[in-house]
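Folding problem:
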Amino acid sequence: MIKNKKLIVLLMTLLVALFVIFQQPKIESAVVDNVITRIDIQNSQGEPLTQGVGSWENFRLNAEFAFNNGQVQPGDTATIQLPEEVIFVGKSFEIRDVNGQVVANATIDSTSKQAILTFTNYVTQRASFSGNFTMTVRIDHNVARTAQQIPLTVTVNHTPMYSGVVNYTGIAGMEPQDFAKSGWQDPNDNSKLHYIIYVNQNYLNFTDIMIGDTIQYENAKIDKSSFRVMSGTWYTDTTDNSIRLGYQEDVTASYSPQFSPDGKSFTLSLKPFNPNRGYYVKYDVDLLGAPANGMLLNNNATMEDSTGWKSVADAQIVYQEDGGNARSNIFKVELTKKSDTGEKLQGAEFGLYYEGTLVKTATSDANGVVTFDSLIKPKYTIKETKAPAGYVLSEEEITVNVADAANGVVRKDVVNKAETTTTTTTTTTEEPTTTTTAPTTTTTTQSTTSSTTTTESTTESTTTEEPISSSTTTETSTTEGSTTETTVTPRESTTTSESDLPKTGTSTTIFTTIIGALSVLGGFAILMNRKDVDVNR
């Protein structure tokens, strides 16, 4: 009984193993090289990076790519690696063509400082692709804290694509301000901006503070639900030397901001006010339309008190949008079918082939034009499969390449020669003479044979096995002459060649193998069971 259990376990194990072994192999994604062709850097406004950058100052990394159909498969990847001193600021994004089709997804990983491009199925639908994309980066002040020249080497799949130097000004010390303002773009939502107004970092005794704030750019409004007034104690964060508000308390309910009807400004009376506390006013702005990438968005705020003291604070945000654009190419071929005298020929049939496989067929129209459109592969071969009536089939193989397309069209002429007709006439005259002792008799036999043969070429595979002959013989006894006229008409025999179908026996073989293995093990199990029974007897 124990042996039977072991055999059952063995049987199940083999079954699972066979299932795994004969599973269809999955297509593995690959790392593709030579796709990203160029990388450079610019400042946040798209200009050459000639000035130094601070610890919170963003700049751009621009890349270009290009590849042909077949060079990249769906799921293939290309990895951009930043150096240790630089970090991505933006979020993951899609690279789309002009019709909104996603060509690749760019996944940003700020921890590993990598951007991984993963290509979609769309790369199989066009002949070639090119485009560009932009990513926002900055110096990682957790790694680089002091002013220095930072070597900036960017690699793609471990191959250096850009090498340069960034002048880093280091982490600047911040002095406490009576009134200040800062702003930044949400790294995960390009349409949202964040602002903070800082009040009384020096703990001065202001009275009757009034704050006003106005958005200076179009297509934006303040998100009223985001408005907060916080109170706390100021301290210096040693990681970046910034001044932050600690021990925060939300005191928004104690104040009543007044918003303009268009949502672009507000006023706030900061009463009550405790001079021994610090305050900041926090709010968000929603962008109703996307500004141009690199556009400078200005915002200023004012603060004054009852003594006439007044201060103005500006906040500038450079709008950044990571993303890219792709351009894809399709092309078409126009052939013009002509005779050797320049006449346009209708009815010629052609086949379009990609790597030996027939893709589509087309026939020349009344103007002799043959068109193959919506071509996505970089290279095709065209062959004539049937000539126009009265013309010889062309044996030329025409190669067309997307690189030869002028404004998306490859144009070529194809010339056919007319068929030739040959007429042969053969005349034979025989004059045998017979002499006997009787009176001499002379017999003259004249034979004339006229033979006309016409050979016509078609685009079908045609085999002529034997001619059918009609023979007419006329004999005249008076002239003892014989004239034979023979007309030979070829009989066409059409042979159709069918290509071999692909073998479909793989799954059958797998099934047979599994069944065979199970049968063997099953028989072995029965045999062992019988032996156990015999022993028990």
